[in-house]
Design goal:
This protein is of the alpha/beta class. About 40% of the residues lie in helices and about 20% in strands. The structure holds 6-O-phosphono-beta-D-fructofuranose.
Length: about 325
């Protein structure tokens, strides 16, 4: 029997547990022995690697986060610890590895695979949706739905109380979560790192809207903009002349019951990853593109920063 392991690295997302569940099921179906590596690359270094069974994944499909833990490993940045990680995999005779993670996790994996003879597949899993070459990363849909629910709830207070609300989303340097949420929530303002702005350009429009009877506004801002969200609140109060509040959504965006879409994508990503490894198409990232799933070389994936979808961006500029 061949041994295959899975680990989660970087920020957890809703969809990791459904992926872990299908990993065990599909690996066993394919005659492989599945292993869990706990707490990301730290688990590889610590030899926190254990055989997994059906009962380990019972009742987890509806849970956010990851049963096997995730981490950002400082030690994995060092060659010495990567060698320890490789040794631990060899010790257990594990020759195939699946990594659920984001950009930083894949960079680590890229270096690891250049130093050691490992067969791996990466699965994009980050709410930021910033993996180059992949239209979709696991966890994004659930995060967008959580943001949608938050904005809808805040709208109730904004409209009842006559306030402007500045709502800050996560996403690091990528404005995808903010822009998609803006387009789907009927907000009045969207500020993202990918589009240069000055608040002055919006002042007349908002003042006019108030003169025309508008009594509340919703502004969605990405955490990656070069301005403190609190300054946008001050701008609404001082320049537009409306009482304003800030809501930083924070880590609620990363957790919660995985959406149907994320459960299905988790299933498909795992299926493609295990099939790729068994077909000998290893050291790839399973990317979801406009023409379906494609296995892309990890080097291509990590060599460029992802550009925001131009169609979405054009709606903001319109
Ligand atoms: O990469 C996922 C993410 O949630 C980003 O959107 C955010 O900037 C960051 O992780 C937060 O990291 P931490 O959980 O370490 O505070």
């Amino acid at each position: 029997m061949r041994n295959i392991a899975i680990l989660c690295s970087g920020g957890d997302v809703s969809g990791m547990n459904p992926a872990i569940k299908h990993f065990v099921e599909y690996a066993l179906q394919k005659g492989l022995t599945p292993y869990f590596v706990y707490n990301g690359y730290e688990g590889l270094i610590e030899n926190n690697i254990h055989e997994a069974t059906y009962s380990d994944v019972a009742g987890i499909i509806n849970r956010g986060g990851t049963k096997i833990g995730s981490a950002r490993s400082e030690r994995f940045l060092s060659e010495r610890y990567r060698s320890v990680a490789y040794y631990n995999l060899k010790l257990l005779d594990i020759d195939m590895l699946i990594v659920l993670g984001g950009d930083g996790s894949f960079r680590g994996l890229d270096v690891f695979s250049k130093e050691h003879d490992i067969k791996f597949c990466g699965i994009p899993a980050t709410i930021d949706n910033d993996i180059n070459q992949s239209e979709y990363s696991l966890g994004v849909d659930t995060a967008l739905n959580i943001i949608k629910n938050a904005i809808d709830a805040i709208r109730d207070t904004a409209s009842s109380f006559g306030r402007a609300f500045v709502i800050e989303t996560m996403g690091r340097e990528c404005g995808y979560l903010a822009l998609t949420s803006y387009l789907t929530s009927g907000a009045e303002l969207c500020l993202i790192p990918e589009k240069h702005y000055t608040l002055d350009e919006y002042e007349a429009k908002f003042k006019q809207a108030m003169q025309d009877g508008r009594n509340y506004f919703i502004a969605i801002v990405a955490e990656g903009i070069r301005q403190d969200s609190a300054d946008i609140v001050k701008w609404f109060e001082k320049k537009v002349g409306i009482e304003s509040r800030l809501t930083v959504l924070g880590h609620i965006q990363r957790g919660g019951n995985p959406s149907v879409y994320d459960r299905l994508m988790a299933y498909k990503f795992i299926h493609h990853a295990i099939d790729a490894l068994l077909d000998g198409d290893s050291n790839k990232v399973i990317c979801y593109t406009k023409s379906g799933f494609q296995n892309k070389s990890i080097n291509d994936v990590v060599s460029k920063t992802k550009e925001l979808d131009q169609e979405l961006l054009s709606y903001l500029e319109a």
